[in-house]
Amino acid sequence: MTLSLPAVTAWLLAAAMMATGILALRYRNSAALRAERIAFLERTLRAQEEETRHLLERRLPALKDVLSQGRPGEIPGPLHPELAGSPFARAHDGVLAVYRDVAADAEQSSQGLLLAVARKLQGLANNQQMKITEMNQRHDAPEFLQDLMDIDHTNAQILRRAVGMAVICKAWPGRQHNATPLHDVVRGAVGRILDYRRVHIVRIEDSRAVAGRAVEALVVTLAELLENATRSSNPSTPVQVHVQLTHGGVAVVIEDAGVGLNAAEREKAARLLHDDALGLSGLGSPPRFGLAACGSLARRYGFAVSVDSASAFGGVRAVVNIPSVLLTDAPPASRPAPARPVPAPAVPRQAGEPTVAAPPRATTAGGLPKRTRQPAARAATPAPTPADPARTTARRSPREAAAPLDAFLRGSHAAAHDHRPTSEGTPEA
Questions:
Q1: What is the pLDDT of residue 374?
Q2: DSSP code string of 371-399
């Protein structure tokens, strides 16, 4: 059968229209898919932009605060949970990890630099103490030796601050001692602060002593607390120190008459004392090495420090609790045998003339005996009547008058340079 031309044309037109419809339908479906895809990509891009902004404005600052303050804190998670597990989210987590690594490296480098500076200061201060001792041995004038004592005490402040910086950097305090009576430990700490004349120590009779391994740590801790007490109170007010027996050991209590601490300051002090993860950047500006050093030593040696209560005078009460494990029996005081005097012709004493007792032996700030340099032989003459102290003092030779200062300086030098266990065991300032 032969189709006519109109019929063929109709069939062709129908086929073309059908193909066009199919193509139009497919194009419409494809356009919808493309529009949906474009919308999805736009939403994803917008979410990624918001997530990046969230990383810069919230997550990284929160991580910075946690790392700088050294305390646990909540770091915000992703703003868009639907991005979790995606390469984009993993890249953000990588940024946070790199930030942590960089902060840890910076903290380690800062501690290394600070420790190097502290050790350099310690070396210079020790050399200066050697020079002071040499000058002390060459001169006898009491006024000159008094100036040397003032310089030596200032040098002790430099050493105390250098030791505090070293302790913050997890370093060893640098000195070792034998078991030392607790009262001598407290007096050794008093000798390391600037305004030591304001400190009043109430002594109790106790036969126990501090174990040698903890002596230096307690001296450093008490010195820092005493320095804080004197600096935060009026210069005309005293700072009271007493020792209280406790169920588990003893407590050294330091009370000042300052303005006290408000809630924010108490919280900050507690963080400095008890936060082991606190970095150098968390010490404040200027950095507060003292309380942080106290806390580091307390954790290392097993005693406790607190400054969260008010004193009876309206200031701050600092308490150092020393457990029994750090206490031992006080060692017997070892005194050198007295030098035998040079025999002199006896002079008969007249009847009724009073007998002058031997002067008491001088002691160090730790309560230990001091030696005097080259004591001059006393002539066997009748003792003067003690009615005129000025004349008695005037008759003393320059060497005798300088003997107490001389012994003080020699004790300071011995405490600063002795890195071995000693019989005294208490550092002098």
A1: 44
A2: PPSSPPPPP--PPPPTT-HHHHHHTS-HH
Report pLDDT digits (tens) over 332-382. 665 444 444 444 444 444 444 443 334 444 444 444 444 444 444 343 344
Of 424, 404, 401, nearest in space to 414 by CA: 424
Whether omega for the bond prior to residue 181 falls within 30 degrees of 0, making it cis, is no
Contact by Cβ (8 Å): 228, 291: yes
Residue listed under structure tokens 């030593």: 297
**Which strand (E) or helix (H) includes residue 165?**
helix 142-168
Number of C-beta neighbours around residue 118 at 10 A? 22
pLDDT for 304: 94
Alpha helices (H) in 70-141, listed in sequence order: 87-138
* Residue 318 φ/ψ, nearest 5 degrees: -100, 135
Beta-bridge mates of residue 319: 253, 306
Q: Tell me the percentage of the chain whose pLDDT exceeds 70.
A: 72
Both tokens of 56, joined, read 């810069």
pTM confidence score: 0.64
Question: How much is the pLDDT for 392?
Answer: 38
Question: In the sheet where 208-210 sits, what is the strand order?
Answer: 180-181, 208-210, 327-329
Q: Quick one: fold of 124-329?
A: Heat Shock Protein 90 (3.30.565)
Determine contact, residues 199/429, Cβ cutoff 8 Å: no
> Given pLDDT bands bounded at 50, 70 and 90, which one contains residue 2?
low
Structure tokens at 234: 């009026």
Residues near 47 by Cβ (< 8 Å), separated by ≥ 6?
A: 79, 80, 82, 83
